[in-house]
Amino acid sequence: MKNDSTGYYESTISRIKQALKKYPDLELGAIIWHQGESNRDYYKDYIVHLRTLIKDYRADLNLPDLPFIAGEMGRWNPTYTNIVKQIAMIPDSIDKAYLISSEGLGNIDEFHFDSNSQEILGNRYAEKYIEISTK
Cα 94 to the chain's mean position, in Å? Predict the structure, then answer.
C-alpha cells in the first residue's frame, strides 16, 4: 500500500516512471496482478485495500483508465477458499478490472502452478490484454 513501511509501492511507481522516461515510446497498457496467497488469512478487507491500491496507481501514474488484470489463485488449495472468493469479486468491485481464470491448471506443490500451467496462465493474461486493448 502507498506510504506503508516497506516502500514497495513507491519503489514500483519510481521504476515505472523511470522506464517510461527512458523509453518515451513505451506505453503502460495495464497492471497485471497475480497475488493473494499471503492474504488468505486476512481476506475480509482484501477488496477494499486492492481498490485503494489501484486508485493510487492510476492517480500517481496519471492513467485514470489503466486496466487492471487479475489472475485467480490455484483452485487446488483449500486454504485459498476465502481469498479466491474475494478475487472473484474484482471485476464487479473495481472499474476497468478483469479476471483471468485458473480453471484446469495444475500445481507442483500446495502453492505454485506447474510450468505448463504458468505458460497457459501467461497466455490467458496476454489474450485478455489484447482483447481489451483493441476495443
Answer: 12
